[in-house]
Amino acid sequence: MSADWTDLDRPPLRQASLRAALASGPDAWSRVDVVSETGSTNADLMERAKAGESGGAVLVADSQSSGRGRLGREWVSPARSGLAVSVLVRPTAPIENWGWISLLTGVAVTDALTRVCGLPATLKWPNDVLLPTIDGNGYAGDHLKVAGILVEATPGAVVIGIGLNVSQSQDELPVPTATSLRLSGSATTDRDTVLRAVLRSLARRLAEFESDGPSGIAAAYRERCSTIGRTVRAELPGGVSRTGIADGVDDSGRLLLLTPDGVISPLSAGDVVHIRNPETA
């Protein structure tokens, strides 16, 4: 790790302590590496997966120069202001269930933010982690994105990438619909603490998925998903847009969109926008 940092509010992550904390117990990871900078932690772990590395590896970067989000979007933030972490897993679950890995990761992040940060985190389908805006009287207003998840598969392996905003100020965020733990009133903005909580929650949720299949995680996901019951606009592949009510999430993880003509369409991919009034959105 690089020692040339001067912002005392944003220290680098401590590889030795993270390894010690995460090396044993039921929520352990086999290898934890921290780098000061890389292009993309997901890309790096994908290369290691293709080279045959075993599951359980974690790669964290204090800074990413080519971070990616869903649908090819760029994910950037000031150095040491957030968490950019990827993990390599080799699931034994049937490959047709691997689509749930993306959704269970969102549940795991909400687990950690609720337990350690004291924040009422929810999910926007499929896996954006949201926090409510706050004002002088407490929580109010729309929910804003604090974390994104990118899951990529290669034969026999899955790489899960998580980007989480931690200490960014309002002018450091890329879009008005984003927030950070600090802006949301988190009980802690210590990145080591938050990272440990996220990785432990993710290990537990992955273990449940391997032992119980999608059924358990599906119930937890539906409970956390704030998209269900909302009027939404779904931007689908090919430039198609549909508006309707999010009627639920099925056992395959697809969003069930109830359109104005009364037809329920299951959506397996797309970008969802929560809207208040479909006639004016």
UniProtKB/TrEMBL annotation:
Gene3D superfamilies hit by this protein: 2.30.30.100, Bira Bifunctional Protein, Domain 2
EC number, as in UniProt: 6.3.4.15
Domain of life: Bacteria
Domain BPL/LPL catalytic: 22-210
One GO MF term attached to the UniProt entry: ligase activity
Broad enzyme group: ligase
Keyword Heme: no
Keywords linked to the UniProt accession: ATP-binding, Biotin, Ligase, Nucleotide-binding
NCBIfam families, per the entry: birA_ligase
Protein name: biotin--[biotin carboxyl-carrier protein] ligase
Species per Swiss-Prot/TrEMBL record: Kineosporia mesophila
